[in-house]
Amino acid sequence: MENINVYSPECSPGNVSSPPSPPPPPVKSTKSKKSTDMFLQKCNSFASKATRDSWDRMFDEAHGADVLIHTDDNGLIYAHSYVIGMASDVIRGMMKQDKRRSSRKSISITGVPQDAVRVFIRFLYSSCYEKQDMEDFALHLLVLSHVYVVPHLKRVCESHFENTLLNKENVIDVFQLALLCDAPRLALLCHRMILNSFEEVSTSEGWQAMKQSHPSLQKELLRSVSYELNSLKQRSRKQKEIQTYTQLYDAMEAFVHICRDGCREIGPTKIENPHVSCGFQACNGLENLLKHLAGCKLRSIPGGCSRCKRMWQLLELHSRICVDSEQCRVPLCSDFKERMKKQSRKDEKRWKLLVKNVLSTKRIGGSPYFLQAIDITL
Length: 378
Known about the structure:
Elements: H1 31-39, H2 49-61, E1 67-71, E2 75-79, H3 81-87, H4 89-97, E3 105-108, H5 114-126, H6 131-147, H7 151-165, H8 171-180, H9 184-196, H10 198-201, H11 205-213, H12 215-261, H13 283-295, H14 306-321, H15 333-340, H16 345-362, H17 367-370
Parallel strand pairs: 1-3
Antiparallel strand pairs: 1-2
Helix pairs in contact: 2-5, 3-4, 5-6, 6-7, 8-9, 11-12, 12-16, 14-15
């Protein structure tokens, strides 16, 4: 088989060095919304309306019906064995088990209301359902679709719950049925709603009933809620840490900018218009701290002034990041370098961890930032 790259224009000698142009960005389409609306319309079927009406009339009139379906409250529904047998292998097996020699076979579908069974059998004929019937019997139809293996009906029920029927009052019941009926997507949606609205869901009747009937499931839900709350706290704490490290990084950049270039009233060059922004958000706060440090009488007293203490910490952090304190114009940079040699191992490890976190926030790789701390003359 010949190599197709020989005939590919992208692999020609003139195009080897230039990669092919990227595909256009995806365009948001409304097809999914339209398909969902079509999927959830009053009568959902790929057949024409005339065909669906014929199947519905066949079911309603029960002409030539050869199956009796027994339901709760001594109810009877007539159906055609070849229709419902083709739609459900389980029902076909049930009819084969009826050994009675009679012109009509007999099966039983109990445990759900008779009207729900009627809606279910009608769906087997024409894949149609009334909107009100789905709202009234969605839970029962989900169970019937699972027990009698009707995947299309199960997808319809899941779509209705996902789009309209699922709420905080019935989410516990739907969640339990989704687990029993092998509907993982619906179970996941229910689980998310329970986690997001746990305070309201935990006071519903479904929750109280689950405590009595399925205490183990309730414990699992409580455990997952606790895990989710802990995860949210950890994410919130992590975001606050990143925000703090980002502010420290910005402060280090602003330090170099003020002491090397000057900004507003501090530095080698002052800005004529102090209201003009220099592009460094931390400049204003750092200038105020520097002015306070210059005039504060408690700055040399240990624990005397919290603002001065914060300024000393920022200056020490800069000295640990700076690569050349001899050419650096930030005040006391070389003094803090000397002081670092006398610190304990514990303090040294703590400062190294802080420097690592501050630098990793911007993913700068080192050199570009360090060069800003040096006054380079060419």
